[in-house]
Amino acid sequence: MPTYDPDTDFEPPPGPPPNWAPPVQQRPSISEPPVPTSPQADQPSQKPNLKPTDPVGQGQSPRKPSEPWKFPKPHPCGVTPLAECAAGGINLDVDWFHHPAVPSLYICSRCYAEHVYDPRFHESFEKVHMKAAESPCCSFPSRRLKEQLWPVALSSGDLAPVLEYMKMRAALPPCPAAASVEGRAWYVSTDIQGSTMCPACFEDAGIEPVIREKFTLQTIPNGCTCDLACTFIDRLLKETKKIEEWKNFVEGVSARISMPACPKGGKRKAQGLPWYQTNEGRPSMQICVACYLDYFVGTPDAQVFHQVGGGDYDTHCDIGNSYLEIAANTTVWKDDREIFWKAAKVVRSQPCTTEGIQGKWYTLPNNPPGFGICEACFAAVVEPMGAQHFFVDKGDYPWFEPKILCVFNSEHGRFGNYMARFVQSALTGDPKFTGDYAETYGNVLTCPRDHYRRGKNRKFWGWGVSAICEECYVSFAKGTALEGRFALKGDPDPKGRMCDMYSPRMRKLYMEACKTGDLEGFLAIGNQRHEVWCATIAVCDRIQSDMQMAAFQANRLRSSSMFYNFLGHSVDNTIGHSYTVGNSYAGYGHANDYLLTGATMAKQAQEASNEATTLSGPARMAMLRRQWAEVE
After folding, report:
1. So what's the pLDDT on residue 294?
2. CA 103 to chain centroid
3. Average pLDDT of span 531-545
4. What is the longest distance spanned by two Cα atoms in the chain?
5. What is the mean pLDDT of the chain?
6. Which DSSP letter does residue 227 get?
7. Is the distance from CB of 436 to CB of 418 less than 8 angstroms?
8. How many angstroms separate the CA atoms of 614 and 436, rounded?
9. Could you tell me which residues come within 8 angstroms of residue 629 by beta carbon, excluding any fewer than 6 positions away?
10. Which of the ends of the chain has fewer CB neighbours closer than 10 A, N or C?
């Protein structure tokens, strides 16, 4: 099993959060991660030791883009089409199309303009403007509709088979993918034990009739997942067209479902499973068997890897552990192997790390301060999604300057928002979604919420008992009726302060005060809220600190106990003993004072460990947090 070699390998980049889904899906589409309800909600805070405003927004002007970018043009259908199919949905107010006979099945403007808009059929479809909150997913990219039924409809001029399929498809529940769902109907085959396929993916796959006969629809009470959400199985089913190929399909599916899923950002024991390493001449990496099957088996790149054995140690997958998963998915549906290897070369040589990097950077043409994408994320995220035209080369960052953090790094305070806006730009072909957000929030630190320590040396507006951080001021309070009565006007607080305007409750009360002008009543509520905070969250912080200190003390005592026990046994083995020592606390019968000290420290370590793991602490903190939530 390959291990980390500092001369030939590189530490893996941090990758996205464990539950984050990559924007590019297994089918030719770009899906969109959810946008937080407010810019400051549920975002990790900035690393205090990192430079908050990176110099990609300062100094020399960025170089011009190598290729001019042309915005999507208006189409005769009456809309400006999206730049990419919205098969994964889009969190924007945009126009969709549907047929009146099947009003619940939608086609995005990209697919409608590129495929559906036909002199014989375009009047049959209606344009519908959908809000972001109700945005559907495009149904056109399915193989059954796009590759089989629609070409026949164009040649015959008959839309009836398409509408029949769309009505059937609209009645099916969406694919649960890897989520386990109980009590639903699944397509199963007696030849493949344990394999389940959801009806939606099964119908979309456009399976040959001779292969379709091998499956039956059964309701299974236990929880199941959809195997067709797996790239390898979906591709294998597409290639299985004759009954003679059924045996190969059965063997492939059986092998794939027996393998565990990619560990993504986590680690896994190397033993018991095959792992694969690149041959000489390719970027050094190791991948799990799941990624090898999904992205390389059945392609010329399968020969680039060789299988290696494992041992009793933890390891990781270099695809699932980084944004290379986006490049790998894009490679599959674009059938362009160089997309992955170009990204892999950069990611493995100059990974994006949580400590920040010094290297080549990319920024937007308006050069917003505080915004920068590192070379690795540019190669693994931006270029595979076809959005390289939005950015310009900023050049190399001087080695003598402090390291800076890429906005696409999962530890960046605005990672979720930047990624969401970038996907919006990639889908629409308009960089303004990324540019406008970067221009507004590039140099604004994330809201400290109710953590006053995070508010140290931050700017605040408002009043002492109702303070407003810079982010909440920019996104909410700026220009409101009470701004002229602020006591704090962007003053830094060296001691630290919590923000009082992140919660929907306080924002609602603030807007009511703006309407009525009752500032005194609003401040009285803020003062009461602070009193509750002192009695709840402040106490939770002390409990948490005490538990951490007890855990540290337990580890220190445990290490000291091991040292004295080793010393005591060494002395006893060398000179022996003629009497024993002990006391009522540590017990009697110890061969020497060293062993007595070791036993004493072992007992103290156990007591400290019990204190650190006692249930009373977490239970009390949970109760206090519930009390705080009532007024938060």
Report:
1. 94
2. 32
3. 86
4. 106
5. 84
6. G
7. no
8. 49
9. none
10. N
More confident residue, 148 or 27: 148
Rg (C-alpha) for the chain, rounded Å, is 30
Owner of token pair 């020497």 = 592
> What is the tens place of the pLDDT at every residue in 166-177?
999 999 999 988
Backbone angles phi, psi at 224, to 5 degrees: -135, 160
CB neighbours of 18 closer than 8 A, spacing ≥ 6?
264, 265, 266
- The better pLDDT of the pair 27, 280 is held by 280
Q: Please tell me the distance from the alpha carbon of residue 419 to that of residue 433, in angstroms, as a whole number.
A: 11
Location of structure tokens 């995070």: 454
Q: Starting at the edge strand that comes first in sequence, how are the strands of the sheet with 373-374 ordered?
A: 373-374, 360-363, 392-396
Residues 476-483: contacts with CB within 8 Å, 24+ apart? 476/501, 476/507, 477/501, 477/510, 480/510, 480/511, 480/514, 481/514, 481/515, 481/517, 482/510, 482/513, 482/514, 482/519
Tokens of 193: 């034990």
Six token digits for residue 269: 């024991």
Instruction: Give the count of beta carbons closer than 10 Å to the beta carbon of residue 265.
Output: 20
- Which whole-number Å values give the CA distances from 548 to 480, 544, 557, 611, in the listed order? 43, 6, 14, 10
Q: Residue 399 has what pLDDT?
A: 58
Q: Which of 613, 627, 611, 464 is nearest to 540 (CA)?
A: 627
Other CB atoms closer than 10 Å to residue 494's CB: what's the count? 8
CA distance 368 to 366: 6
Residue 401 confidence class, pLDDT cut points 50, 70, 90: low
Q: How far is CA 349 from CA 11, 12, 54, 346, 397, in A?
A: 9, 10, 22, 5, 16
Using H for helix, E for strand and C for coil, what is the string for 3-72?
CCCCCCCCCCCCCCCCCCCCCECCCCCEECCCCCCCCCCCCCCCCCCCCCCCHHHCCCCCCCCCCCCCCC
Residue with token string 């595979």: 384
pLDDT band at 626 (very low <50, low <70, confident <90, very high): confident
Q: Per-residue confidence at 2, pLDDT binned at 50, 70, 90?
A: very low
**DSSP letter at 219?**
E
* Terminal Cα-to-Cα distance of the chain (whole angstroms): 51
Residues sharing a CB contact under 8 Å with residue 479, sequence separation 6 or more, in sequence order: none
Q: Are 289 and 275 in contact (CB under 8 A)?
A: yes
Sign of torsion over alpha carbons 583, 584, 590, 593: negative
Is 102 strand, coil or helix?
strand
Structure tokens at 312: 């009793």
At 73, which amino acid appears?
K
Contacts with 269 (C-beta within 8 Å, 6 or more apart), sequence order: 310, 312, 313, 314, 315
**Predicted confidence (pLDDT) per residue in 559-579, tens digit:** 988 998 899 899 889 888 888
What single-letter DSSP state applies at residue 260?
A: P
The pLDDT value recorded for residue 537 is 85
Q: Encoding tokens for residue 83?
A: 């730049």
0.90 cut: is pTM over it?
no
